[in-house]
Amino acid sequence: MNLNKYGLILLLFLFFSTCVYIFSQDVLLISFDTESPDNETVMLELLSILEKTNTKATFFVTIEFQKNLPNMIPLMLEQGHEISCHTQNHSILPFANKSLKEYELQGCKQILEEQYNITIKGFRAPYRMINLNTLFSLKKYDYTYDASVFSIFRNMFFPSPITEISTSSYLIFPLDDYLSLEVFHLSPEFYFKLLNNYPFKYKSYSFHPHVIMQYPLEFEQTLINKDSNKITHIAYLETKYGR
Ligand SMILES: [Zn+2]
Question: Is 99 exposed, middle or buried (0-12, 13-18, 19+ CB in 10 A)?
Answer without folding.
Answer: exposed
